[in-house]
């Protein structure tokens, strides 16, 4: 876990910077509108997208504790990312929300889980699947791990790794059920059986006479041998 906090400088938005037209202009200038939520209050803010991405790409990632400094103020606001919105096509950040926290009080958040090692079952042809990519925890803001590493080396085919198998970190409480929460498993490989094409078995090759039909095809019509249909002899 990282004890260092990233500093994020923001500006407070005035009443004249809250309309949709103004917000579009801010985004065009590379600025991201947002809100800093605190106990009993909320402050509309704006932050440079480049600085925002830098702050959120640090050791703590999206779960980092940031020191949000509002322009004109010297006291930082310790905050965590509450919500981030991105443009569906361009990927640019369109809005961001932060929530102030106290460093001496526990908070609840999600922490990513990273799989490490090579599962034994994979070497035997099994398929490794990560079921849970993050787990919910409660801890003091500065004690929250950047991530959990789940070692899958011992997983054989049919094996399952649960939250209970992840080493406990002092000061961190798992909020998910350790026994019921599956982190990863290794399934047996699928054996694909080729299905016969419909009608392939029933129909013979073109021109082939089906078994049992040979006599029917070779028999002459009744009476043909006696000259049925010809003029009688005189």
Topology:
Elements: E1 6-12, H1 20-28, E2 31-38, E3 41-48, H2 49-56, E4 66-70, E5 77-86, E6 93-100, E7 107-116, H3 120-123, E8 127-130, E9 134-139, E10 148-151, E11 160-162, E12 173-174, E13 182-187, H4 214-218
Parallel strand pairs: 1-4, 2-6, 7-10
Antiparallel strand pairs: 1-3, 2-3, 4-5, 5-6, 7-9, 8-13, 9-12, 11-13
Tell me what you see in this structure:
The longest helix is centred in the first third of the chain and has 9 residues, at about 20-30. With about 230 residues, this protein is mainly β. It has helices at about 20-30, 50-55, 120-125, 215-220; strands spanning about 5-10, 30-40, 40-50, 65-70, 75-85, 95-100, 105-115, 125-130, 135-140, 150, 160, 175, 180-185. Strand 5 and strand 6 (about 95-100) form a beta hairpin. It has two domains: about 5-100, Ribosomal Protein L25, Chain P (Beta Barrel), CATH 2.40.240; about 105-185, Ribosomal protein L25, C-terminal domain (RNA Polymerase Alpha Subunit, Chain A, domain 2). Strands 1-3-2-6-5-4 form a six-stranded mixed barrel.
Features of this protein?
234 residues; four-stranded mixed β-sheet; disordered C terminus; six-stranded mixed β-barrel; mainly beta; RNA Polymerase Alpha Subunit, Chain A, domain 2; Ribosomal Protein L25, Chain P
């Amino acid at each position: 876990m990282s004890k260092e906090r990233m500093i994020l400088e923001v500006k407070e938005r005035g009443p004249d910077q809250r309309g949709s037209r103004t917000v579009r202009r801010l985004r065009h200038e590379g600025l991201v509108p947002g809100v800093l939520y605190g106990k009993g209050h909320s402050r509309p803010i704006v932050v440079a997208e480049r600085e925002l991405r830098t702050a959120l790409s640090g050791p703590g990632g999206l779960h980092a504790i940031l020191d949000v400094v509002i322009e004109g103020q010297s006291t930082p606001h310790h905050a965590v990312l509450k919500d981030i919105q991105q443009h569906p096509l361009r990927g640019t950040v369109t809005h961001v929300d932060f929530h102030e926290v106290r460093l001496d009080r526990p908070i609840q958040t999600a922490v990513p889980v990273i799989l490490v090692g090579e599962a034994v079952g994979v070497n035997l042809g099994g398929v490794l699947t990560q079921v849970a990519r993050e787990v919910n925890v409660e801890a003091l803001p500065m004690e929250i791990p950047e991530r959990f590493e789940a070692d899958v080396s011992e997983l054989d085919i049919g094996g399952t790794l649960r939250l209970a198998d992840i080493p406990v970190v002092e000061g961190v409480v798992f909020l998910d059920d350790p026994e019921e929460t599956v982190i990863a498993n290794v399934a047996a490989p699928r054996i694909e059986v080729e299905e016969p094409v419909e009608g392939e078995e029933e129909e013979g090759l073109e021109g082939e006479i089906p078994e049992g039909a040979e006599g029917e095809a070779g028999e002459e019509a009744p009476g043909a041998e006696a000259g049925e249909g010809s003029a009688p002899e005189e």
